[in-house]
Amino acid sequence: MTTSPSSSPPPKRGRIDGTAPGDDAITSPSSSSYVKCVNTIRALGADMPQAANSGHPGAPMGCAPMAHLLWTEVMNYSPSDAKWYNRDRFVLSNGHACALQYAMLHLAGYDLSLDDLKQFRQLGSKTPGHPESF
């Protein structure tokens, strides 16, 4: 991961199902790829609080379609250059939905593994339960 900001554009983003930005297959609510993407986000958002026996799955599950659209069609980011100067910032002010942010960071390719997600709301983990701590 680069530690200094850069002004170069980010590399092309990947998608949960490998399609390219602007691909209607992942943004059309009636497509099976879209449903798979959103349901993957929902499952992660529900699994984290369930495994921790603490937290709220409703907001991550309900916000999954919005997050999917933002992260695949709107936001510019680069997991390989997290300090990229022109990156968009995903600001989440609702701690009840922090599992959504962690799920999206994982799916987008940031340094947050599935094992990190399994440590949701555990002391000393990368996923402590509130995004201001990450």
Largest sheet: none
Number of DSSP strand runs: 0
Helix content: 40-55%
Low-confidence segments, ≥5 residues, pLDDT <50? none
Note the topology.
Blueprint: H1 24-27, H2 32-52, H3 58-74, H4 98-108, H5 114-118
Helix pairs in contact: 2-3, 2-4, 3-4
Structure, described:
The structure is a single chain. The chain is mostly helical and 134 residues long. The protein is built from 5 helices and no strands. Helix 2 crosses helix 4 and helix 3 runs parallel beside helix 4. The two termini are 16 Å apart. The model has no long low-confidence stretch (mean pLDDT 81).
Give the tags:
mainly alpha; globular; 43% helix; 134 residues; 5 helices
Summed up:
By secondary structure, this protein is an all-alpha fold. The protein has helices spanning 24-27, 32-52, 58-74, 98-108, 114-118. The longest helix is centred in the first third of the chain and has 21 residues, at 32-52.
